Amino acid sequence: MITTVCLDSVSKEFTDKIPSTNIGEMCLDENKIVWADVADPTSEDFTNLAAEFNFHHLSIEDCRKEHQRPKVEEYPGYYFIVLYEAELTGEHDHLELRELNIFLGANYLVTVHSRPIRAIKTAERLWHEWTDRAEHGAGLLAYLLMDAIVDDYMPLLDILSERMDELEDQIFGEFQPAALEEIFRIKKQLLYLRRSITPLRDVFNTLLRREQPLFARATHVYFQDIFDHIIRVADTIDTLRDMLGSTMDAYLSVQGNRMNMIMKRLTSISTILMSVTLIAGIYGMNFQHMPELGWKYGYIFALLSMVGVGLLLYIYLKKVKWL
Amino acid sequence: MITTVCLDSVSKEFTDKIPSTNIGEMCLDENKIVWADVADPTSEDFTNLAAEFNFHHLSIEDCRKEHQRPKVEEYPGYYFIVLYEAELTGEHDHLELRELNIFLGANYLVTVHSRPIRAIKTAERLWHEWTDRAEHGAGLLAYLLMDAIVDDYMPLLDILSERMDELEDQIFGEFQPAALEEIFRIKKQLLYLRRSITPLRDVFNTLLRREQPLFARATHVYFQDIFDHIIRVADTIDTLRDMLGSTMDAYLSVQGNRMNMIMKRLTSISTILMSVTLIAGIYGMNFQHMPELGWKYGYIFALLSMVGVGLLLYIYLKKVKWL
Amino acid sequence: MITTVCLDSVSKEFTDKIPSTNIGEMCLDENKIVWADVADPTSEDFTNLAAEFNFHHLSIEDCRKEHQRPKVEEYPGYYFIVLYEAELTGEHDHLELRELNIFLGANYLVTVHSRPIRAIKTAERLWHEWTDRAEHGAGLLAYLLMDAIVDDYMPLLDILSERMDELEDQIFGEFQPAALEEIFRIKKQLLYLRRSITPLRDVFNTLLRREQPLFARATHVYFQDIFDHIIRVADTIDTLRDMLGSTMDAYLSVQGNRMNMIMKRLTSISTILMSVTLIAGIYGMNFQHMPELGWKYGYIFALLSMVGVGLLLYIYLKKVKWL
Amino acid sequence: MITTVCLDSVSKEFTDKIPSTNIGEMCLDENKIVWADVADPTSEDFTNLAAEFNFHHLSIEDCRKEHQRPKVEEYPGYYFIVLYEAELTGEHDHLELRELNIFLGANYLVTVHSRPIRAIKTAERLWHEWTDRAEHGAGLLAYLLMDAIVDDYMPLLDILSERMDELEDQIFGEFQPAALEEIFRIKKQLLYLRRSITPLRDVFNTLLRREQPLFARATHVYFQDIFDHIIRVADTIDTLRDMLGSTMDAYLSVQGNRMNMIMKRLTSISTILMSVTLIAGIYGMNFQHMPELGWKYGYIFALLSMVGVGLLLYIYLKKVKWL
Amino acid sequence: MITTVCLDSVSKEFTDKIPSTNIGEMCLDENKIVWADVADPTSEDFTNLAAEFNFHHLSIEDCRKEHQRPKVEEYPGYYFIVLYEAELTGEHDHLELRELNIFLGANYLVTVHSRPIRAIKTAERLWHEWTDRAEHGAGLLAYLLMDAIVDDYMPLLDILSERMDELEDQIFGEFQPAALEEIFRIKKQLLYLRRSITPLRDVFNTLLRREQPLFARATHVYFQDIFDHIIRVADTIDTLRDMLGSTMDAYLSVQGNRMNMIMKRLTSISTILMSVTLIAGIYGMNFQHMPELGWKYGYIFALLSMVGVGLLLYIYLKKVKWL
């Protein structure tokens, strides 16, 4: 399904929706800024796009195949951009990464995606509110869209960061085995997030240093802003990964500490019980000449010895912190 | 065994198979595009190649020796390319890497390999189907061949990725010792895969930034596409390696957890059994004055004490989660 | 709240405080050096700033949003700089990072911060004392401010370094479990400190290699000095991180050593007690023909055997360092 | 001891051995290609070299001191190259690294070494067999020598690789403690090998990108070939290191697994023996009213109970895989 | 205290010591090469230096503050260099790093240090012995000084390397707990050494690639030599760090192995003693019908059973290597 919005940069008015077969024609007029959004594209839509915009078949192929890595490729007359919108969905905060393909020309923007992209709504609203939108061409539109996507990573990372803080508290407090599984789930999510944002860093870096005939200098500043946000997101992801590694180390150390604690306790309990049992064993011997056996309070004496030895050991072991 | 295909870029027709001793001659005609495939080359084949195409003896030497690292080398008039086709074969998914040597000139492509390469079939088929094949020279042929090889890495990595997901589930669920061996097998396979793809990344990066007299700008886009796929494969391998590392960490932590569990259980069982045995020991003492010994239900009382102490300890230890 | 200081570089005198709505006007006069400090900015302040100095709305936006990554951005006519002042506060040495936004023009400096920044006081004082302050323009002011902030990192790192030395001593001496938590707190603080200083390293590196029309060569040396201090801080942070990692390794090894010690002790104690109990068990057997049972000093003999066996084992185990 | 070989590039004949004091003179004739090999150099030899060839005293100093890092240094009129030949010697495959210093001029090659270098023999033989040796000057000679040295690393790495495969099998099979020591020995050998080859990678990379007045373009290809082999060796070393790291991880995990196994077994055996002993303890009590004691088959009954309880526990523990 | 040495490059004679207030004057004469050594500088000395040589106040500030990172900074007319001399002192081989500040002009060298620097003596001696010292200006002096400092790192690293070899032997042989503390001490020393040498690597690399108006080409070779030695030291430090890491890994593995050994022994001893005790327990039962109890050699039989069971278990456990 192709939806189009078209802005006349002279009259500064939005023109009516245009049929999808006339888009190419419309784009020839440099005073029009055209946004064509292709949701859940059919094979026919791809053929249309290729025909209307004269896109290189390799970029069309990339759209069709999906699961591309995030990238910005320069083709004659347009950029082909792949981005991923990230969202934590469902009860268990499953990480969903939704692919968005962008064809960015001087005065047109074509967005292709098989799943609904929230940022498209945001970008459209902001574009309608933007005062000097007619002066920046399709570049501004691309900025609003990419910025909405990249900025959405930050609150998501804040959620993961809070989760990690809770996990850390659990580790030093009372530990729940489920926390371990949670740590690894977050680790994996950070890996996927990183994979979907860091390749853009290098590409934007290269793009911003190059001569860019497609966009004016004033628009260039906006791309620098996206680059800044991408770095911020990438840095935050790296910091979270470092902290998660540190949390894992903490967990392993705490685990080692607990093992030491348990072993000391085992040794202590064994020592106490074995010592006491030894006394019982001694008075269970069958010697004919064992004076204590004949004592009136021999039994009481034996029991008291047992309690005494047990208590003494207990106190000693408590004192050296083995119990 | 040398097989040849020859395309006339003027008549746009395939010419008949040509005898291997005439290939060099044929290549002098710039309107011909020649593909010579040398399977399981004999010493004579190498001599032939060197004579017909005037290849530098160092590149011929590399072909002959095999086990080269993946690379792209520039020689006067042609590129010498080494690639590896990857496949998981056999019941235990053994990773097989098959070396392919490519000599790429402006209007000829020579492929040398001692084991059958699947991608050659694919590339040949696609070339015959390609509409504007006559315009791109031997570059298109090289693209189709390399692309077929590089793209084959992705499904293979998907298989490894699925296997890893299964292993991760096993780690947090019921663990099979064989899983550990499996983890290390995958780790090794990823190491080999990485070694056979990442060197190409840097080489292609260098090549694409250079002035390239051999191929037209239109063909250049195809090489950029291969570069993009190589990065994608390399990134995926790195991500899988990261995840495998994370799985190993998880495994070690889970192992530590289990050890803690076992030690607690050992302590608990020892404590219970020793305590109960102590009671038996007490009533096994031979004091003359032990009132319980004379009781009618003394024996029952002792047994009940044992059960009681055992149960109390059991309940307590269950409550503090040591059992 | 906007506070302003204004220096006349001709008369070399400080002029009176100027109303915030005249700052822009004042800055047009190239002989004035203006410092406007905006503490706890209101929405109105931001509008004022944008209007008076004609700042790009993207940089105003960054100020407003806060939590930016440390950076230096070049806008037409001014630099936009984000820095963090670091302080250990409170009883538990909580690390506080206070954001400072700087707009640096050729002859003006605008500082924006929502929390009080100590370095502002320091920089102001040093500026008033500086002899050739009129010759360096706003660049000197920026240097004094940034240098005060960056230099404050060093004493803070010294505190952390001392803390780490104490922790290390604890690890090889008598270990307190709280030390582990302390290690991880420092690790986290170093992570935050690193994140707030290292991005500046790369940016300054780039800036210093570029042609810089805004400032004279004589001022350039001061920025090189800040760069040098940033590297020093960043290097120290990295060294501390390495040493903390090393301390963690030491901790884990010491823990392992202790575990070995405990296990040996457990084995030793079990062995001694079990051996002694065995003797008691033997003489608790009910055979009719056990000569020792009838001996006069059989009991004494048995007790002495127990003590003997226990002592021999004890001495042996002490000798092999298991006890 | 100085040995010389001299090739006349016009007559293409080898001239007779020349006295060591005439070498410098000989080298002035551009049509001669001179190779002077200085084995086990005396102080006098160094003085001679410096005088004959006019070598910079810093490079002579490096030769004299030995234990230089592998490097290629450019001096006016010649390159000074340090390489290490690697060999596994003796029964325990001790790694021997033999230093070779090369002075490479346009038409002369001086090799200095205190221990015999096998590659010198190989290079000499190949040079005598080479057909167009007169056209490449001393560069070819350097290529043959360096290539012989670098290529010798590969079979050595193959040996280490095989050893590692055996070790890995041992780890998952029946483990011999000696294997651990072997792993660390290989690790150290790889460290030394890496140290003796990787510095060359960067140097060659720099050299090959530079304008090189000393050698013709045709000779340049040979240096590229050495560079390629150096990368191959360096990559292989890195891969082996990665695999060794992975083997170590495997070893630690297997060790952890075994510990878990042992602990389970300990718990199981203790449980069985303690339970059976408890029964004996019960019937060792001295109550007057214990009906079983009077039973005719009481003893048999007790023994059978013991066997029964032991067997039941054994079967149960076998089933849950603790034994 | 300021000491001066002055060489006249025309007469090639050393002139008499000059009063510290005339140094600046002397340096104006390009034919003089002046070395001023400022040991344990007072505040007055710094004022003098600034006045005489016209040093930038930032570099004077760096001297005054001390604890700078190693660096080479370019100021108009001179280089400001910070280096550290390393020495192992005292009984426990405490690592001492002594800061040396160098101001290097075309024909003067000013060295500032608060602690005695051994290399100064060495450099002075070598300078006096050097034949063509008059031709190289102050650059040669700087070379001799820096080279003496950098070369002193190597024997120090050799000492650490030998210590590490001993530690490694201890780990696989009989382990002393003190070895662990030693490992961490060396680790820390390597960290400090690395921090005091590696920053120079990058700086020298940059310096050597730049156009250098201060020194002649002939002197340039000497700086390249220092650079080479710095790399050698840095590489050796990295190798030692790698090896120490490997030693730590070995230690942890050996520790794990020992733990396994101890646990097996504990299990074995428990098993033997418990089994033998069980027999005693059985014959301690009070059944009326226990035929063995009435046997004449019942007691002997029981003791022999105990010894037999104990021996059988012992032999079995020895055989499976658990004891």
Describe the structure.
The structure is a homopentamer of 323-residue chains. The first copy, chain A, has 323 residues and is α+β, with helices and mostly antiparallel strands. The longest helix of chain A has 66 residues. The interface between A and B is large, with 51 and 43 residues.
- State the largest interface: A-B, 51 and 43 residues
Main sheet: strand order of chain A:
2-1-3-7-6-5-4
Name the average pLDDT of chain A. Answer: 86
Assembly form of the protein: homopentamer
The largest sheet of chain A is: 7 strands, mixed
Q: pLDDT under 50 segments of chain A (min length 5)?
A: none
- What global shape of chain A is seen? rod-shaped
Structural class of chain A: alpha+beta
SSE order of chain A in H/E notation? EEHEHHEEEEHHHHHHHH
Number of helices of chain A: 11
What keyword list fits this structure?
323 residues, homopentamer, rod-shaped
Topology:
Five copies of one chain form a homopentamer.
Chain A: E1 2-8, E2 13-15, H1 23-28, E3 32-39, H2 43-53, H3 57-65, E4 71-75, E5 78-89, E6 94-105, E7 108-113, H4 118-129, H5 133-136, H6 138-151, H7 153-172, H8 178-209, H9 217-282, H10 291-294, H11 298-319
Parallel strand pairs in A: 3-7
Antiparallel strand pairs in A: 1-2, 1-3, 4-5, 5-6, 6-7
Helix pairs in contact in A: 4-6, 6-9, 7-8, 7-9, 8-9, 9-11
